[in-house]
Amino acid sequence: MTPLHVWALAGAAGAAALPVAIHFLTKPRGTRQPLPGFRFLLESLNQTARRNRLRNFLVLLVRTLAVVLIALAFARFIERSNANVPGADPGQRNGKVIVLDCSLSMHAASEGTLLFDRARSLATKELGRGDLAEADLVFAAQGARAVFGKLSANLTALRDEMAGARPLPQALDATAALDTAARSLAGLSAEDLKSREVVIISDLQRSNWTKASFARLPKGAPVRIVSVQGHEPLANIAIVRAGVSGMAEAGAPILTAADVANFGTASASATLELSFDGRTWSKKLELAPGAVESVPFEIPASLPGWRHGAFQLTCDSPLLDALREDNRYPLCVNVRKAREIALITTERAADVGGPAFFLERGLRASPDATVNVTRFTPAQLEGELDAALWRSNVVAVIQCGRLSDSQSTGLAKLLSGGVPILYAAQFSADADNMKSLEVTLGSALRLPVEFQVLKSGGTASGGSSALFGNRPAARDSGNKRFLVTVNVERRPFKVFGDAVARFTQGMALNGGLASSLRGDAGLDTESILASYSDGSAALVITRVAAGRLAVLNMPIGAAGQHLAAFPIFVPLIQELCADLVEGGSERGQGGAVCGMPFSLAIPRWADLGGGTTGASPAKNYRLERPSGEPVSIKGDNAPAFRTEGGNTVFGWSAAGEPGAYLIRRGDEVIAGFTVTPPFADESNLAALDHDVLTQRLAQDRTVSVVSADKLADRDDSDKEHFHFFFIAALGLVIAELGILKAFRT
Amino acid sequence: MAKSARRAPRGRSKYAYLDPSALQELKNLRFAAKRIVEGTTAGRHRSSLRGSSVEFADYRAYTPGDDLRRLDWKVYLRTKKPYVRTYDEETNMAVTILLDVSASMDFGGVNQSGERGAALTKLDYSRFLAAALAYLVVDCRDQAALGLGGDGLKGWCAPGATRIHLDTLLTKIEKAPVSVRTDLGSALSTLYTLSRRRGVLVLISDFLDSSLDTLFQSIRLFRHRRFEVLLFHIIHPDELALPEGRAFRFFDPEGGAELEVDPQDVAAHYLEAFEAHRLRVRNMAIGCGCEYERIDTHTPYPEAIRAYLRRREALNR
User: Fold this and answer.
1) Interface residues from chain B to A (CB-CB < 8 Å)
2) Does A271 touch chain B if contact means CB atoms closer than 8 Å?
3) ipTM for the complex shown
4) 3-state helix, strand and coil shares in percent for chain A, rounded to the nearest 5
5) Is the minimum CB–CB distance between A745 and chain B shorter than 8 Å?
6) pLDDT at A90 (0 to 100)
7) What does pTM read for this prediction?
8) In the 3-class helix/strand/coil scheme, how is A94-118 assigned residue by residue?
9) What are φ and ψ of residue A97, in 5° steps?
10) Sequence-distant (≥ 6) Cβ neighbours of residue A3 within 8 angstroms
11) Alpha carbons A151 and A138: distance in angstroms, whole number
12) Contact criterion met (CB < 8 Å) for B249 and A31
């Protein structure tokens, strides 16, 4: 136990002597006066002397005690646990780098106080220590920013910066924060580091800190972590994900859903409200502890165009929702007039029963959307591509023969420009086209498998599939291959759920390509969503530049058993098409995360459209809010349009404020996207165990963790002490009055 | 002589402690003895002796040798038996005033700064009182004697009824020195031996004597000789209660002892003790058959005398 204000103790000692000194110094000089009845005075004194001595002693005692107690009240005794900082007394550190967590989770409220306010208060106290000679301040969120980048004696500037600090709707990149702190201490000798320390003030959110490594900090400088989390884990409910299911098309209802999670330990009642396109819907929720509930909303048909709205979650009990900033999730949906599909094939439209015939039927068979299928010939891929191709939601390629280099280049352009391509591969030329496409796209396309011509006997010329295993030989018969493995966790098979086995069982197909896994390490084997009994990939969906490529290695319209002969054909094609249209996200349009880099390829048709001026089409675009308010952000994080490989790309090195954004060219909305806080990372407010920080993550650094609760307890204790001492002093004053009254003569 | 003293112009007395004009109001009152006294000359006071006087007392049978002038012939003719009339012999009265001149009497209160106040001290007041009484006594052709009591009898002036004697008394009263200590018992004992015939003893004192028992033993001697003893207890208002304030250094006027004390601490006890002392004096006085009169110095002395004499006259009727 140490006094916070030593001077107060010294004052206490002085103050204790003060009443005595005052008593003697201010003792009035008696006026000399004769008294004939002196004998009576003596007599009275004899009677009252002992009583008066006792009274005087008691009065002096209570006065002294009262003064001492008041001094002690201001001395504010606190317990300092120096055990966590071996060999170092924080009070002797004259230089420190303070890392202040500014992530979204710091916006949580604990016991009526924002964690960030608590953190800032603590940081300000750290800066206010009298023995501090120099310091630097690091604001840590998705990126870390140091005020000076080195230790500076300009503490006033640091305090000013601190006063203006705000929590950001971003996740915390602990590694970046530690790196920045390390840079502030760079260049200091080991001897200098002994008198420096790194003070991290954070909520120690598990999702942020679990991968932190203190090895990035220089050895010698101890690390003191102050956790601002409360006594109990903070309960919180949040929208962790939201979006549109399927493609939003005019005339058709829009299916939206929000995943609402309850990170607390008690059930929570909440209301989820969806505001979209000027209309509002709401649902009452009962969220079990730890549960993530998907809440669907069906929005009646909307007009075509970019529409926006937001989910808003309101908890009935504010105590169960510590973080309010994760209760709003923006939506930005492109409601299309119709699904535009370009079908590239050499097959004539009049031909019936061909592969393109069946694929077109499958593409058109949407139960709830208007689908326009336009046929193109491979020759139309040469040269400048038709704008209709660029505007296509999906380009389907089937039975197009061997593509020339220029045609492959055209296809590659579409992919690079963000147009998804469904390539139905079943002929030997398709294997060559895949290779040609890979060559054309270079590193942008790396399929996990290499497609080859299927040899007789139904075996692939490549090796076995490590991912799916080998099929029993008994099931292979002749050229037939069975579809044996499908990834039901992802689209397009996810829609079948547990019934997928019923669809695929005994599904033997004649034809298609064989494939073999590439030996390259790091390939995206998860992009193989279905495979045959011989290990060949039946469906591969991979991202290529801004677009996506789906290779459907299944015979369609061929002789013998082909995909169109099975009931799974239409739903599979529809789901596959929807997946490609929606960009691989089940919840639609995709979006940026606050503070994270974000890029969006401007559709090529927009660049080709009229109204472009100047040499750079990028200058024709602007970023706006749905309200029409332009987004004007200056500096390093300013959003920008640039031209890459002939395409215009919107880039944002660190996405800004949450909400919906529209990219316009003139009056036309070209694209839209949302910026959301990092809900999944920041909404779960569970804190990392302190032992993990001090042991596993410390990496031979001296790391100590102090809970702000303890500090708060100390503060409370201080307050209690203060109140106790003060009230006791007051009580003593009252006691003095009582004594004087009791001894009144 | 006495008449001239009574006619002295108001405020123009040559005596510091006698203002005859102030006593004009008392001219109709007289200081009469309640009891039978022994006088030396014929006077207004009843004597223990029977003799010629105008105050008829009784009849008694004639015995040879009685003065035939006192034979009541009318009674003899009616009863055929000789009776003589007896009369109360009236004589003059000797009033002995014992004035306490101890240091405790030299207290007239103090002002805020602890200096002696402008008010009369108890001694001054007593001087006025003694002078007035002497004046009244002599004015009634009675004899007045004066004793100065301090640490024993400090002065004595034998009884006398003349103007010259009054002058002597007044001068003695005026110039009486203050005695450091008080021993009125000793003074009374001495006075007792000096008093030749019974009369009235007037003791003017604050009775802050070292031994009240000794004092009243001496008083009892006088009472034994049938003296009428009057005790005037002089009290100054400032000694009744301790002064208000926080710090005073009180000293004993007679002993010199000093004591620094907060009056608030002892005020109540002091008051109780003082009142107990006063009651004790009163009770002892009454127990000895003395007359006790408390006189506060804030009461003008003529008024105090008048009140006393009226009460006394009323009792004598």
Assistant:
1) 104-105, 107, 110, 113-114, 122, 206, 208, 236, 239, 242-243, 245-255, 257-261, 264-270, 272-274, 277
2) no
3) 0.76
4) 35, 30, 35
5) yes
6) 47
7) 0.55
8) CEEEEEEECCHHHHCEECCEEHHHH
9) -105, 120
10) A9, A75, A76, A77, A78
11) 11
12) yes
